[in-house]
Amino acid sequence: MIWLIGNKGMLGTDVEQKLKASAFDYSASDMDVDITDIGALRNFSKDKKIEWIINCSAYTAVDKAEDEAGKAFKINADGAGNVALVAKERKAKLIHFSTDYVFDGTKSEAYIENDMTGPIGVYGRSKLKGEENILQTLSEHFIFRISWLYGHHGANFVHTMLRLFGERDEVRVVNDQWGSPTFAEDVADLIIKIIRENSTAYGIYHFTNGGRTTWYEFTREIHRLAKEIGLKKNDIKITPVSTAEYPTKAKRPANSCMSKTKIEKTLGVKIRPWQESLVEFLSEKVL
Ligand SMILES: NC(=O)c1ccc[n+]([C@@H]2O[C@H](COP(=O)([O-])OP(=O)(O)OC[C@H]3O[C@@H](n4cnc5c(N)ncnc54)[C@H](OP(=O)(O)O)[C@@H]3O)[C@@H](O)[C@H]2O)c1
Prior knowledge:
The protein is of the alpha/beta class. Helix content is 40%, strand content 16%. It has a single domain (2-155, 182-211, 256-272), classed as 3-Layer(aba) Sandwich (Rossmann fold).
């Protein structure tokens, strides 16, 4: 059976829906089984025959993490290590998620998996330590670094923009940070594929939707499509600003584009353009 950890989060909710739709035998937990408590993890798993653990739980408050380093590291580093240890003890394979924020963003091209990491914020550092803890504990791991995640459940950039389009005449959006949006349902499909194929091609992989954009261009496309689909009726001024004009507590990488060549070649994963996934996401909102 499969153990899905973090089933109440943005990604975890979509993964659970796909597990259900594919009729997989699974158990799920969230804050009720605290990943920072190894005893709780052992206790939950002790009578179960677990083949796969999918860890969608994390501390994801990027700005708040700057003031809560202890908590971020406890969950993202120690917690991830605990999950890997329990996976080892139960002889289960682990699927875990990391982030583009493990990079410093100074590379001019897309990052590959072996590129040197160098997180510039607490969240990225805590996620990188989580990767390291897993690598030291368990060989049978898949770590997917994803970026700019959005989905139907929970707070994310697309939801924020859709709300602001209805509340404001103008939104000011950063136009000098480059990256790739990732639709949570596409990540969930990837997980189903890995488990269905019982893959053993363990390692770290980059996975996002295809293409690159800035938050500003992403916003323009969200608005254009929302109008086209009929989700929004009003026009709005979308103004590009620089990172310097829009300061945030945590620094973000200027370039966090990640190459998908490894995952395409090794796991045979098809990467959808970000625009295609965004159309699907917004269309699902009007259904
Ligand atoms: N969101 C992004 O843009 C993004 C980008 C790149 C990578 N990622 C990675 O993708 C993965 C999924 O992210 P997401 O946005 O779906 O996260 P999310 O919505 O914040 O969900 C994480 C879930 O884990 C739970 N959780 C927190 N601490 C826990 C603990 N100690 N024990 C058990 N459960 C705990 C959370 O509960 P509470 O809500 O009650 O805290 C929440 O239900 C994470 O690994 C994240 O780092 C996300």
